[in-house]
Amino acid sequence: MSAKVLHAGTPKGMPAANRTGKAKGEDTIRQEGIGDKLLSPRGLGLWVIAIATFLVLIALDWSGMEQKVSSLAFVGGEWKWKDWGLWKFLYEYGPVPSILVGVGSLLWGIVLLVRKAPRKKWLWALYPFACLAIAPGFLVNALGKDQWGRPRPRDCEVFGGQQHYQHFWSPHFGGEGRSFPSGHASVGFYLCCLSMIPGNRRRWLWLGIGLLMGVLIGMARIAQGGHFITDIVASCGIVLFVSWMLAPSFCWLGQKGGTGHNARPANS
Fold first, then answer.
1. Residue 34 C-beta-side C-alpha neighbours within 13 Å
2. Could you tell me which of 162, 99, 94, 171 has the C-alpha nearest to residue 128?
3. Which of 26, 70, 130, 182 has the fewest CB atoms inside 10 Å of its own CB, making it the most exposed?
């Protein structure tokens, strides 16, 4: 009688062990879905982002387009639209949503960790915070613009400033410039990372919101003479690269954690 109950749902010809293995395999596929869908084959997305960003930067620099774009905002010897209401609003408050998402991610991850939730849950809760800390926080600001030394457009002689124009590929370490890459734009593009979270049914919506926020904030900074268009493109590439790189890593860590600290025995 007990044997019949044990194998009640097992198809004929399929041992219970095979059925269990199949279920585990399907669960693994579900956990690896983000890597399969966004990085298939693995690493392809990272190469696409890196190469595309590099080619766009080179094209904008060699064609002189970055100076031409900035010159559209520099009219009559001044940055004509630097005080326009929308640009000022985006400069002052544009980063707020991203900061709230990052801080909320950290707090929620800590709550889940304290409650001993499954590793997969608290790891993905911390994913947005990790993207914010690594991409805009460390790579763009601490390691990038604070060290690169590229003068802002408004500080260059060609736009009425006192410093020489500097190509993005020619760093001046120790210089006073803080143009490359754009910190504000990177915080806008950062919202794209929410599209990488597994189970997010609004993946394309968040990707669009992140790209839109980054572009709008970037336009504001160009209009204010704070950044070249290449600074904006570099920030976009860095944020997307980090987001795509971290996603499969978090998937792997989540799988390794199994069911987490609060797992119960199957017969409990």
1. 25
2. 99
3. 26
| Token pair recorded at residue 174 | 């120790």
- Per-residue pLDDT of the chain in tens (268 residues, 90 and over written 9): 444 444 444 455 555 444 444 444 444 444 444 445 444 555 788 889 999 999 999 999 999 999 999 999 999 999 999 999 999 999 999 999 999 999 999 999 999 999 998 888 999 999 999 999 999 999 999 999 999 999 999 999 999 999 999 999 999 888 889 999 999 999 999 999 999 888 888 989 999 999 999 999 999 999 999 999 999 999 999 999 999 999 878 877 767 654 444 444 334 3
How many other CB atoms are found less than 10 A from the CB of residue 126? 20
Cα distance between residue 34 and residue 11, in whole Å: 31
What pTM, to 2 d.p., does this model score? 0.79
Contacts for 198 with CB less than 8 Å, ≥ 6 apart: 31, 33, 34, 124, 251
What is the rounded distance in angstroms from the CA atom of residue 240 to the CA atom of residue 191?
A: 10
Three-class HEC string of the chain = CHHHHHCCCCCCCCCHHHHHHHHHHHHHHHHCHHHHHHCCCCCHHHHHHHHHHHHHHHHHHHCCHHHHHHHHHEECCEECCCCCHHHHHHHHHCCHHHHHHHHHHHHHHHHHHHCCCCHHHHHHHHHHHHHHHHHHHHHHHHHHHHHHECCCHHHEHHHCCCECCCCCCCCCCCCCECCCCCHHHHHHHHHHHHHHCCCCCCHHHHHHHHHHHHHHHHHHHHHCCCCCHHHHHHHHHHHHHHHHHHHHHHHHHHHHCCCCCCCCCCCC
